[in-house]
Amino acid sequence: MKLLSLSLLFLIVSLGCGQLPKKDFSRKWVRPTFSRNYSGTQSIINFHPIEYKNKIITANNENGLQAFYKTLGFKSWSYKIKGGVSSPALRVADFIFFSGHDGFAYSLSAKTGKVLWKKDIKFPSHQAFYYENGKVFIMNQKSE
């Protein structure tokens, strides 16, 4: 009787597992590479994803900054920058600081993506910004 019960349980589990829906979520986060990136030019992206509450903020050389909801993967906000982001980002509380290839340093709201300030630093910075005692320090590529 015990063997029959185990065999029946195995049969039910085996049949049930085959009925589970198969969904492929891997394509949700894949972004195609543009053909111009295959032309031998090197594209360096210094930006590392930032976690902010229920969002992941990321950046690249094509789309600028984008924030996605962690649970569903839907876009929350985006901010386009000509040439993309050149430096790693610094997050202090609800603010993000970074440099763009357009020669500007930015501060954006991590919550909304709204620009809080934009400073012309003449050349893009590829270095991380530094924060201490309420001040943000920026080093561009051609300091004077």
Q: Can you tell me about this structure?
A:
This protein has 144 residues and is mainly β. Helix content is 12%, strand content 32%. It contains 1 helix and 10 strands, in the order αββββββββββ. The longest helix has 17 residues, at 2-18. The chain is elongated and about 80 Å long.
What is the number of strand segments?
A: 10
Residue-averaged pLDDT: 76
Give the C-alpha Rg.
23 Å
- Number of continuous helical runs: 1
The description of the largest β-sheet is:
4 strands, antiparallel
Range of helix content: 10-25%
* Spans of at least 5 consecutive residues with low confidence: 37-42
* Strand residues, percent: 25-35%
Q: Strands of the biggest beta sheet: in what spatial order?
A: 1-2-3-4
Annotation keywords:
144 residues; 10 strands; 32% strand; elongated
List the helices and strands and how they pair.
Elements: H1 2-18, E1 50-52, E2 55-60, E3 64-69, E4 75-79, E5 90-92, E6 95-99, E7 104-109, E8 115-120, E9 130-132, E10 135-137
Antiparallel strand pairs: 1-2, 2-3, 3-4, 5-6, 6-7, 7-8, 9-10
